[in-house]
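This part of the workshop introduces the protein records we will be handling. A record pairs a protein's sequence with a compact description of its fold. Backbone structure tokens are a discrete shorthand for how the chain folds in space. The question running through the whole workshop is how a given chain folds. The record below serves as our worked example for the rest of this section.
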Amino acid sequence: MTNSDIDVLKGLAFSKNEDVVFEKYDGLYVFDADTTDTTHILNETGMHIFNRMTSPFSFENALDAVLSEYDVEELEATDDVCLIINDMLRIGLIKTVPARRTT
């Protein structure tokens, strides 16, 4: 991932698609989230991030979830979280929402 990809995600807030129903199958989470007939699979790391997210959540919240659970360097985790969030957005598992402002 490039720094600009990560910077874009850092400026957004996200919300779960609450209509998604997961089934666990052989250690993976299988679900339908979009309007196609495609079935998607989420691994343990992706599901961990998804379960730790409260709405709205930020890139930093997702990164913290990974860093607190897995023994991984921050740079590697940042790239992984960027990929996971982009995938979740693409398939409709999460959506962007207005970010909360702090004063």
Summary: The longest strand covers residues 21-25. The chain has a mean pLDDT of 81.
